[in-house]
């Protein structure tokens, strides 16, 4: 596999943020497929669409993270199923599928977010 063990870089997007979830496979994995409701082991990077500022990265912490999909934002719940272990996928998540509209109390409320996710395992 190509660069899945390395932290990705996200190019600054051009144009207005999308109003619907955008799912793009950067690397298609050949392992087991993530099902809705699965627990996933991932490395991920998150940046704000408008500024390109990084707000979170498992690479910076030096370890992957296990999450039950049902505990994550709707954009991940919709954007990860169908992904295969060994793959790298980019999700562009509008506010409605992330942390809600501006003023919602979360520091990322009202923001479109970009995630690059490496799927390392599913259970």
Task: Please tell me about this protein's structure.
With 123 residues, the chain is mainly β. It has one domain: Chitinase A, domain 3 (Roll). Helices cover 8% and strands 33% of the residues. It is built from two helices and six strands, in the order E-E-E-H-E-H-E-E. The chain has helices at 58-61, 74-79; strands spanning 22-27, 39-48, 54-57, 65-68, 88-93, 113-122. Strands 1, 2, 3, 4, 5 and 6 form a six-stranded antiparallel beta sheet that branches. The protein is globular, with a radius of gyration of 14 Å.
**Mean pLDDT across all amino acids:** 93
Query: Tally of extended strands?
Result: 6
CATH topology: Chitinase A, domain 3
Q: List the helices and strands in order.
A: EEEHEHEE
Counted up, domains total 1
Shape: globular
In the CATH hierarchy, what is the architecture at level 2? Roll
| Biggest sheet details | 6 strands, antiparallel
SS-based class? mainly beta
Question: What's the CATH first level?
Answer: Alpha Beta
SS field, number of helical segments = 2
Approximate strand percentage? 25-35%
Q: Give the N-terminus to C-terminus distance in angstroms.
A: 21 Å
Range of helix content: under 10%
Cα Rg:
14 Å
Q: Unreliable stretches, pLDDT < 50, 5 or more residues?
A: none
Keywords: Isomerase, Rotamase
GO molecular function: isomerase activity
Catalytic activity: [protein]-peptidylproline (omega=180) = [protein]-peptidylproline (omega=0)
Family: Belongs to the FKBP-type PPIase family.
